[in-house]
Amino acid sequence: MPTESSKETRDEGIAIKQNKMGIIIPLITALIGSAVTLLVGVLAFPPFQEWVRDRLSDQKIEPLGIEQMSPRVFAYYGEADNLGGFARLELIFDAGAERPSYELSYNLPGDQHGYTGMAFQFKEGSNLSRYGAVECIVIFSELSDVVDLYFKDIAGNFNTIRVSNNGVGEMRLRYEFTNFPAINFNAVKEFGIVVSTDFSTGSHKVQIKDVRFSE
Known about the structure:
This protein has 215 residues and is α+β, with helices and mostly antiparallel strands.
């Protein structure tokens, strides 16, 4: 049976342990708080932020082929809106090619306003903000051919850039996104080709392939 002295000794031991815990817990809390404060200070330190930006900028962003985005691809034309213009889209697979060429055959009248074109459409909008340019190959059928390349965002903003046949066959093109200042590249709805009677009439063909987005 425990004696009174042993009970007092046990109570003293418990009190010492509790006292130690009362010291250790605030100490740990203080150390954690100091570590968090130090970490926040380091993250906010301008030289460290610059170092992180430099490290991230050194990481090369791989080009994104438009087929990887699973767009809806289609031809459109003014006849559908009781205007002039008709078009047909055909996919052409060259031997050994990984991706198709998209050939737009179109006709624009000379006696009324009309338009035609083809679109790569991203139903929910696509975020291309990590890229800085669009690249593609365009092949015209006639020396006098002219088309506009365009972007459209989900808000309906629309920008074009004119492309004319330079007689070299395949035209490898690259246009910085800065050429399309109205477009919100966080939410791109369409990329494509548009032709109107404002600058073209008659029957023509144009191909576009190897469309991709790059730094």
